[in-house]
Amino acid sequence: MSENQPPPYPGDPSGQQPGEQPGPTGSTGSGEPQDAPQQPYGAQPPPQQPWGAQPPPQQPYAGQQPYGAAPGQWQVLPKHPKATLVLVLGILGLVVCQVLGPFAWVMGNRAVAEIDANPGVWDGRGEAQAGRILGIISTVILILSVLVLAFVFVLAIAGIMSASNDFDEMSNELSLLGLL
To answer: pTM for the complete prediction?
Structure first.
């Protein structure tokens, strides 16, 4: 052993330094490092994957779900406070009272915009979108109902006016006949 090299590791019967390969006589001879990279003393080699095996999945970025992950597996988001209300208003506006339709439409637009503006903060976009669409449909039905009702009202007034004109003409004719 030369003076430049540290003493052998305790417990190593050959007296070799870590990373040295024994030569034909049990030493490296020159003491220079070998060409092949050597593992640190006591380190385990990395495990080899079989041919065609998939690498382990990487961690997703913040607010993202990994490919193939089920929704809610990584992070459960709170539902937007108005998502369920918009859906209920949309259903009621379509089935019971079309006057609720415009409210569902406007509130649904706001809820969807808030959910889209803050991805990863709110859940319930599907409910808000469904309530918004039901609100649009019930608003269209409300407008058509008002137009049909106005048309019927105009026809009724026109019928009453023509009937009253006919009545006036008949009463004038009867009064003329009575004079004769």
So the answer is: 0.51
